[in-house]
């Protein structure tokens, strides 16, 4: 997916950008409202991540202008405040959702997915690979003409594999991305989800291979 | 929080006392004036009749052959008859010597030629009004002075005076009652303006620091304008401190977000388990601090709002539905489903921000403790009270701690592995108390916890 990140703090922008690129997203960065406006006019984005406090103005003004010019790119606000009234304020101005800094990237991703799903029809981001059609936004997987609905964790797990085909993921690495850091995760939790995915992919050309002692890898078998 | 001001006297009492005191003095003055005027008029009436009577007697005096002859006309006495049967005394003097009549009346030897001389006196124990007049009779070689004195008791006059006094008293009392009523009305109308201002100050919500625009009487304008300027300053300093908090939060949370994002990204690349564990601890610590900071601010905000509860009509179902939509992405990360059950509409008069915050904390808790791929059920119902219940299929509350969990910073023994500040349920309880409701923690029969916010 293609993101526009509007954030004046360079360190944070770099951190978010590098984290999101890891998940296979494209991120453009604007440090001011002027830049953001220029980016939005020149490019089309799936989603805008908007900081509220910017050197040349309030992000909410940008939001107002953005909505007034009938652009319906979804906007998720990054706010530092946790006051409910402030959150409601930005939602009233046309933000689709908000996350409070510091945020969990898995949560941000979940929110992006939810926002895009609500505005269905905007982002058609289906992936076709190895005989499957995968829609990560809707959570659909079409295998052999049959549409399967994936649970969120199955869907994310499949996404990790598809974004890096051929890469070996250790159990720990997958667990860290799939579960939140405060979840009590048992050792075989990942095995359960991998087993489910394998079952879904049975009739496709994709196969999750176990490499003993190393982890898992998605292979394309013809 | 609000100290009651020192009270010195009462404007209302001062006004009422002044007005009623004035009315009482005026009423007494009215009474005495009317009475004394009436008494004078009545006395003048009696005097005129007495005078006429004396004159008619005097006219009937004649000198015949050097002898004084008095033929008292009947009319002279009949004109003096009164309803109270006042007694009449008369005396006729010739050159100062009593000629005929009562010797209780005395000669005055006063002015001549029919001029009336009045005096009040006492005869045989009765108060009388006496008039005398004299006339000089000239005969053949003789010249004699005749004086007629006529006295009349004053029973009729006293009766008239009593009546007049009574009427004057009625008039005074009536006047007093009218003015007293008017002064109460005027005082209430004046104080009413002050009360109206007081009510509109009191009715304001905690956030409302806008100036008063409603017209007030001219005398109150200075008060209102200084009130407005005070509120203006308060508003300014509040918004300054709000800006400060926003700025401070921004400055603190932005670097935290940077650290968290980098840690998150680095975790994807690092292979060594001990490094990974260090990064995980880092992320957990950041989450814990930001969550605690957020909840401390929320708690402070809730304590403040609970002191000045701003109630409005809200549909609890719509409020919870918004929250469910907002929290669904987080629930999905654990493959939890959030379901909303209960009545279609529950109208309640309360503070939406407080209630939203409370329910959010309840659902957050459920999401934290519920096992993956389970159901968290939220029920909004209108029984005798409006109730919002959140039920999960998690481990439930430890039975021994169920009563202490709502205390500040108190966490369940089985919550050791999860991030939390121990403020969540305290916030819910504070919100419940502020609305006159209650927070009820129970364990479900099968498995799981049930948290009910009863409003």
Describe this structure in words.
The complex is a heterodimer of chains A (222) and B (455). In chain A, strands 2-1-3-6-7 form a 5-stranded parallel beta sheet, with helices on both faces. Chain A has helices spanning 10-22, 33-42, 59-68, 84-92, 105-118, 152-163, 171-178, 189-200, and strands at 2-6, 26-30, 47-51, 53-54, 57-58, 75-79, 97-100, 127-129, 132-135, 140-143, 146-149, 206-211, 215-220. Chain A folds into 2 domains: 2-118, Response regulator (Rossmann fold), CATH 3.40.50.2300; 127-220, Arc Repressor Mutant, subunit A (Orthogonal Bundle). Chain A is an alpha/beta fold and 222 residues long. In chain A, a hairpin with a 3-residue loop joins strand 12 and strand 13. Among the domains of chain B are: 16-162; 309-454, Heat Shock Protein 90. By secondary structure, chain B is an alpha+beta fold. The two termini of chain B are 24 Å apart. In chain B, helix 6 runs parallel beside helix 7 (352-369). The radius of gyration of chain B is 51 Å and the shape is rod-shaped. The model of chain B has no long low-confidence stretch (mean pLDDT 85). At the A-B interface, helix 1, helix 4, helix 5 and helix 7 of A face helix 4, helix 5, helix 6 and helix 7 of B.
- Per DSSP, the total helix count of chain A is 8
Rounded to the nearest angstrom, the radius of gyration of chain B is 51 Å
The fraction of residues assigned to DSSP E strands of chain B is: 15-25%
What structural class do you assign from the helix and strand content of chain B? alpha+beta
- Written as H for each helix and E for each strand, in order along the chain, the element string of chain A is EHEHEEEHEHEHEEEEHHHEE
Give the C-alpha Rg of chain A: 19 Å
Total discrete domains of chain A: 2
User: What ranges of chain A have pLDDT less than 50 throughout 5 or more consecutive residues?
Assistant: none
- How many strand units of chain A? 13
Fold-level CATH name of the largest domain in chain A: Rossmann fold
CATH superfamily of the largest domain in chain A: Response regulator
């Amino acid at each position: 997916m293609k993101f526009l990140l509007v954030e004046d703090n360079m360190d944070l922008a770099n951190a978010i950008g590098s984290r999101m690129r890891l998940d296979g997203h494209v991120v453009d960065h604007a440090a001011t409202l002027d830049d953001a406006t220029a980016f939005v006019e020149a490019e089309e984005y799936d989603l805008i991540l908007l900081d509220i406090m910017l050197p040349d103005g309030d992000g909410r003004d940008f939001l107002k202008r953005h909505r007034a010019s009938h652009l319906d790119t979804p906007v998720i606000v990054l706010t530092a405040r946790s006051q409910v009234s402030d959150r409601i304020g930005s939602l009233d101005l046309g933000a689709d959702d908000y996350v409070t800094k510091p945020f969990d990237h898995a949560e941000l991703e979940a929110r992006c997915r939810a926002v895009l799903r609500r505005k269905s029809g905007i982002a058609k981001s289906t992936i076709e690979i190895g005989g499957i059609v995968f829609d990560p936004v809707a959570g659909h997987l079409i295998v052999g003409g049959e549409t399967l609905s994936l649970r969120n964790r199955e869907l994310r797990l499949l996404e990790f594999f598809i974004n890096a085909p051929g890469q070996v993921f250790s159990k720990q690495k997958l667990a860290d991305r799939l579960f939140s850091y405060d979840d009590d995760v048992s050792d075989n939790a990942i095995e359960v989800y991998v087993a489910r995915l394998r079952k879904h992919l049975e009739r496709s050309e994709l196969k999750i291979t176990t490499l003993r002692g190393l982890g898992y890898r998605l292979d394309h078998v013809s | 929080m609000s100290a009651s001001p020192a009270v010195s006297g009462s404007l209302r009492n001062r006004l009422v006392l002044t007005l009623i005191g004035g009315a009482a003095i005026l009423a007494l003055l009215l009474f005495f004036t009317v009475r004394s005027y009436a008494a004078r008029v009545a006395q003048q009436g009696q005097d005129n009749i007495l005078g006429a009577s004396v004159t008619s007697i005097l006219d009937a005096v004649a000198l015949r052959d050097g002898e004084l002859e008095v033929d008292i006309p009947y009319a002279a006495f009949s004109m003096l008859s009164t309803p109270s049967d006042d007694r009449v005394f008369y005396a006729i003097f010739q050159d100062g010597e009593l000629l005929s009549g009562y010797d209780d009346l005395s000669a005055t030897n006063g002015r001549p030629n029919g001029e009336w001389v009045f005096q009040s006196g006492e005869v045989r124990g009765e108060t009388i009004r006496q008039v005398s007049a004299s006339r000089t009779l000239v005969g053949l070689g003789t010249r004699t002075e005749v004086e007629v004195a006529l006295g009349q008791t004053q029973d009729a006059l006293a009766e008239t005076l009593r009546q007049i006094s009574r009427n004057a008293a009625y008039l005074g009392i009536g006047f007093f009652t009218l003015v007293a009523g008017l002064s109460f009305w005027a005082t209430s109308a004046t104080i009413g303006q002050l009360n109206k201002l007081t009510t509109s100050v009191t009715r304001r919500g905690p956030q409302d620091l806008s100036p008063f625009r409603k017209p007030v009487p001219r005398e109150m304008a200075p008060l209102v304008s200084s009130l407005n300027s005070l509120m203006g300053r308060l508003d300014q300093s509040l918004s300054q401190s709000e800006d400060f908090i926003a700025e401070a939060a921004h400055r603190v949370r932005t670097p935290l977000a940077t650290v968290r994002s980098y840690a998150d990204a680095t975790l994807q690349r690092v292979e060594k388990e001990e490094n990974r564990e260090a990064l995980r601890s880092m992320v957990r610590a950041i989450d814990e601090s930001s969550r605690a900071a957020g909840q401390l601010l929320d708690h402070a905000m809730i304590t403040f709002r609970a002191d000045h509860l701003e109630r409005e009509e809200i549909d609890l179902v719509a409020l919870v539905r918004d929250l469910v939509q907002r929290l669904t992405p987080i629930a999905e990360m654990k493959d939890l489903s959030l379901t909303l059950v209960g009545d279609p509409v529950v109208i309640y008069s309360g503070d939406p921000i407080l209630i939203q915050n409370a329910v959010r904390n309840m659902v957050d808790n459920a999401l934290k403790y519920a096992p993956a791929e389970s159901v968290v059920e939220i029920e909004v119902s209108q029984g005798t009270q409006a109730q919002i219940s959140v039920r999960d299929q998690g481990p439930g509350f430890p039975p021994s701690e169920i009563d202490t969990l709502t205390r500040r910073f108190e966490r369940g023994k089985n919550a050791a592995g999860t991030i939390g500040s121990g403020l969540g349920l305290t916030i819910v309880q504070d919100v419940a108390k502020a609305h006159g409701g209650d927070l009820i923690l129970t364990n479900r029969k099968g498995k799981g916890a049930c948290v009910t916010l009863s409003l």
